[in-house]
Design a protein that fits this description.
It contains 19 helices and nine strands. The protein is globular.
Length: 455
């Protein structure tokens, strides 16, 4: 039987029920810190093997040993949800973390983006990912690690390039226009057709079939398109691409609602702890100290923060909304919005000033200057890195007759050029799968027009 993260677990659940939190069951597991780090890096406790995860793990390990980060918990929303807690957390820390996880579970059950995504992917993501990993291990046994890793290179290089405005399951593009229904003949034409007389000996010439372009419009789900239209892709390669795409769909709400979700969980862990009269004073004080560390604007004393702590910002915003407009209003916002609308609609100039949020300009010589406290510029600075999963917006604009795949970078939309060296690497990955020429229209860091091609 798994150990309980806190001996106050059932008391906190009863308190959460009285305060009308509504969540799916959560399965808790206490694990060593090293396992916690692996889960945080891989994104899931069991995931497809790939060298890039090892690189991320080393980076996270260095950060951890230098004291820049500590992972208390990793949560996977679903029905049931899964939460992994470090087994070296103190009783007070795990009491706080347990309350925090209940807030996450309440958010993911009641937010429309989470609900829609989980309905399409799976409410049991850990089991789904384990199935993906097993199938990829089988592919390695059959086709060799090098071949499978090349396909994974391509799929993981494109894992952010999905279209969440489309369904996970979607039909292929039509290749010919729909037939127009034959209109019934009127009385005149019926009589005309019944007349006797000379008829042409020549049979009518068949019309050249009309083929619709593929894609009919710019396609932004690169994983989906390559999986279904790469002319020589094998079934196991397609399976790899679609597995990566499924997991990317699952993670999108976590990414798109990070400020809302972490803020909501922080709001509720603080509120539950304040109402938890059953907690001994020393546990309560230590837990609130941990709360202060979680929602502080900077990582440590005497540091200047040039990035936003989502716990701090989200907590302050929810606290203001509940105090000013009430819990019912807060729950309507939770149900309908993501970080984009949440920041634009509810982060006002007064709160930004109170939190000392500002936009800064960094020069090449290392000099940093504070820009004007323009609330709209601040909104875009906060949301810019979240646009399109944090990646450049690239779509498939045309599939040429000779099989060349043409990609278009929408640099006017995301406002930045590409790192051309990285772009060439990604194009080479695509070329391995497409097995035909690939062309990318883009701009460089200085906004100069560029066309990249593969051999």
């Amino acid at each position: 039987m798994p150990r309980m993260p806190s001996r106050f677990q059932s008391d906190l659940e009863n308190l959460a029920e009285r305060m009308q939190l509504d969540y799916f069951p959560v399965e808790f597991e206490l694990v060593p810190p090293s396992f916690m780090m692996e889960v945080a890096v891989y994104g899931l406790p069991v995931r497809m093997p790939h060298w890039s995860f090892g690189v991320r793990y080393i980076h996270q390990l260095v950060q951890h040993r230098m004291g820049y980060s500590r992972i208390f918990e990793v949560v996977f929303p679903g029905n049931p949800g899964h939460a992994f807690l470090a087994n070296n957390n103190s009783l007070a820390e795990n009491t706080l973390v347990y309350a925090h996880v209940l807030g996450h579970a309440d958010f993911s059950k009641n937010n429309e983006l989470f609900r829609r995504t989980h309905n399409q992917v799976s409410p049991r993501i850990v089991d789904l990912a384990a199935g993906h990993a097993q199938r990829i291990e089988q592919a390695i046994e059959k086709h060799g690690r090098e071949r499978v890793e090349q396909v994974l290179d391509a799929a993981l290089a494109l894992e952010q390039h999905i279209d969440v405005n489309q369904n996970l399951e979607r039909p292929l593009f039509p290749t010919s226009p729909p037939e127009k229904p034959k209109e019934p003949a009127d009385e005149f034409h019926k009589r005309f057709e019944s007349l006797t007389g000379e008829r042409s000996e020549m049979a009518p010439q068949p019309k050249e079939p009309v083929r619709l372009p593929v894609p009919p419009r710019t396609e932004y789900d690169l994983l989906w398109f390559l999986a279904h239209y790469a002319p020589e892709m094998e079934d196991w390669e397609r399976d790899v691409f679609l597995a990566v795409r499924e997991e990317s769909f699952y993670f999108y709400p976590v990414f798109a609602c990070q400020i809302m979700n972490e803020g909501w969980a922080s709001y509720w862990h603080a509120r539950l702890l304040r109402e938890a009269s059953f907690l001994p004073q020393d546990v309560y004080l230590d837990a609130m100290k941990a709360h202060s560390d979680v929602v502080r604007p900077v990582a440590a004393d005497n540091q200047v923060s040039l990035s936003v702590n989502p716990y701090h910002l989200g907590f302050a915003m929810w606290d203001q909304i509940v105090e000013r407009d009430g819990m019912d209003a807060a729950r309507k916002i939770l149900a309908q919005e993501d970080d984009f609308s949440f920041i634009r609609n509810w982060l006002d100039a007064d709160l930004a000033d109170k939190l000392d949020l500002f936009v800064y300009d960094a020069k090449r010589n290392g000099e940093i200057t504070v820009g004007e406290k323009d609330i709209y510029r601040l909104h875009e600075a906060l949301l810019g890195p979240k646009f399109n999963f944090g990646s450049p917006r690239v779509g498939i604009s045309e599939l040429r007759r000779d099989g060349t795949l043409e990609l278009q970078h929408e640099y006017e939309t995301d406002g930045r050029g590409l790192d051309l060296d990285r772009a060439r690497h990604v194009m080479n990955y695509i070329h391995r799968i497409w097995r035909r020429p690939v062309v990318l229209q883009t701009v460089d860091a200085r906004s100069g027009q560029k066309m990249l091609t593969t051999d």
